[in-house]
Amino acid sequence: MTIAANLGFPRMGLKRELKKSLEAFWKGKASEAELQDTAKMLRLRHWDMQKTAGIDGIPCNDFSFYDQVLDMSCLLGLVPKRYNWSGETVDLETYFAMARGMQKDGKDVVAMEMTKWFDTNYHYIVPEFENGMSPKISSTKIFDEFAEAKAADINAHPVLIGPATYMYLGKTRADDFDVPAFMDQVLSVYIEILTKLESQGASWVQIDEPMLVLDMGEAAQGMMKKMYDRIAAELPNLNIVLTSYFGDLRDNLSTALSLPVATLHVDFVRAPEQLDEILASLPDDKTLSMGVIDGRNIWKADLAGALAMCEKAVAKLGSDRVAVAPSCSLLHTPVDLDDETALDAELKNWMAFSKQKLIEVKLISDALNGNKDEAAFAENVAAIESRKISERIHNKAVKDRVAGITEADLERKNPFQKRIQAQRDVLNLPLLPTTTIGSFPQIPELRQMRAKFKKGELSQEEYDSYLEKLTDDAMALQDEIGIDVPVHGEYERNDMVEYFGEKLDGFAFTKNGWVQSYGSRCVKPPVIFGDVSRPEAMTVRWSSYAKSKTDKPVKGMLTGPVTILQWSFVRDDQPRETTCKQIGFAIRDEVMDLEKANIRVIQIDEPAVREGLPLRRDDWKSYLKWAVDSFRLSAAGVEDGTQIHTHMCYCEFNDIMDSIVALDADVISIETSRSAMDVLEAFIDFKYPNEIGPGVYDIHSPRIPSTEEMEKLLTKALDVLAPEQIWVNPDCGLKTRSWDETRPALENMVQAAKNMREKLKEKAA
Ligand code: GLN
Ligand code: ZN
């Protein structure tokens, strides 16, 4: 018998019930008991959905109030000192203080660091290791959830992050931290946890080791092997399903195969080419869990293709040694397509959300067990075929355009040194010109008006004239303050990707397609389903309107192709590169229209370039090449005198600096203020050739920076960059701030630029 298994289910609930309950609890509007009730209701509902789908291997402990890595830290009792934890079981107050920081009753502690989970848009809480920590079981969550499932007649398998991956994700600030000794202690607690689960009656346990798809290196490979040898020695009867996902095993394959575990799970969606090698080398005592249903995207699987792979595995291993599963936890896909109302029937027929993906898993396992549902398979073939040939997907003009890209399409007419002269003639800006990153405060009234407009309670004209009024105010204010390159304020956008997606062909939007981003925060990524093109101008109206209100050069604002790609569900029927270049052309068309409307400064934001980097370094080069080319494609059509800006935030630039230079933007604005200009170092070491706007204040903080502190930062920048190279701007868009904070901060910023100009003049005299 081949079993159908799941690795994890989205925890927020179809209507984001957990989000609402968490936020009510945080605001003091719901009790802990109410929160616990919602959580339990969701767990039971989700187990029931999986059971109904016919899944044999149902996970527990995949639920979390915030994040599964934070849960692991609490289970191990690894709570940093600053939270003043009692040392017994980790209570909810401590848990949320770790996740979100806490300011209450005179206590003021910052949250733990948060970062992206592998190459997803899910963020986890980074474990912090400190001297003096003594790992011990400090949470009952995993045991309680197992018991809860059992009481609901579900023989669930507990899921936990594996010790190797957990240790790898953790960080310590102490130089003298004894990692090997600590690791040993942590592993002892893992063994206690597993022992307890075994005695509770868990017949198998899922241990996630996604580290196996990274460049581990020999030392880490050896370490992992030692860890699992010890676990197996102490728990010889425990059935472990060891999972890898998000990539291929590559040079870690022999390590993965050597681990003494019962089942190895492999992501065959990302890396189907590994199948033959794995089948040839899988030890006789192991089962292979086939991740053949895409846990990272929303498309229907090609069931026949997936079944063929599994049949190959069964032919080699026998049906008892094969399991069928999604490629990874379903955390990264929405809950249920049946409930979706915003998509038309044809699009819906091409898609599958978590519930539908489990049905696909079951169809495959049933087929392997001799109960092939021919009708369902035939329906799947028809759906796949209709998608393949649909006219809504295929646009010959777009395909031809991408196929015909030449070097010349990617090159500005002249090199930067020549362009900048033309730009200086056109723009006539002072030294150290001031600007902002694009958005201005999205005040509550704007959100209300947008909601009314979307509900049809406000006409297009009424909504537009409201946006015009906000733009008028923003233009007047920038004029008063003395901003050299004003922006219109991006009031027409709720989100920098959604706005463009809604205006481009080839994009669709869901009503309930939520996925968790971090904590209670969910995003609804656009779905790119077809060839992308731009039927009409998207931003020219707003930039031109702003331009009519000032004599200064207005900066047009666009989101770049890589960022639009990165924050959407993408097509699985063509390479990401192709989709990205299609978007690149659509943005190029907009850039050209802005130039035609005499907008001579155009910013193309690319905050997501770095996060698109593949997990393996060997794969970076080809990604960076097409990412850079897509950006250049979007920007390169303009005349020398039109100035292209780009913006990036919160990322390490050091190891991708040559690609940043290769974007060949005339000006780049970057985040630097939190790290007091440290980020600039990469640009200096690399002798960044074009102009730079190092953010002079942190927009993520409500505090208003003084003129002096911004002058200090500018002085630091002037130590290492030529004055002609430097722009003065905040470090990101201002949409999350209020005007009370924004206005004085910008006044101080402009004053700082003016003072620095004086100082430069004095120095020159
Ligand atoms: N132009 C965008 C804004 O100002 C940039 C946002 C971002 O970098 N994430 O909001
Ligand atoms: Zn930013």
Give the topology, please.
Elements: E1 3-4, H1 17-26, H2 32-52, E2 59-60, H3 68-75, H4 92-100, E3 102-104, E4 107-109, E5 114-116, E6 123-125, E7 128-129, H5 141-151, E8 157-161, H6 163-169, E9 171-172, H7 179-200, E10 204-208, H8 217-234, E11 239-243, H9 253-258, E12 263-267, H10 275-281, E13 287-293, H11 303-317, E14 322-326, H12 345-348, H13 354-368, H14 374-389, H15 396-403, H16 416-427, H17 444-455, H18 460-481, H19 498-503, E15 505-508, E16 515-518, E17 521-523, E18 527-533, H20 540-547, E19 555-559, H21 561-566, H22 576-596, E20 601-605, H23 620-635, E21 643-648, H24 657-662, E22 667-670, H25 680-685, E23 691-694, H26 707-720, H27 739-764
Parallel strand pairs: 1-14, 2-8, 7-9, 8-10, 10-11, 11-12, 12-13, 13-14, 19-20, 20-21, 21-22, 22-23
Antiparallel strand pairs: 3-4, 5-6, 15-18, 16-17
Helix pairs in contact: 1-2, 11-13, 15-22, 17-18, 22-23, 26-27
Bound molecules: glutamine (GLN) and zinc ion.
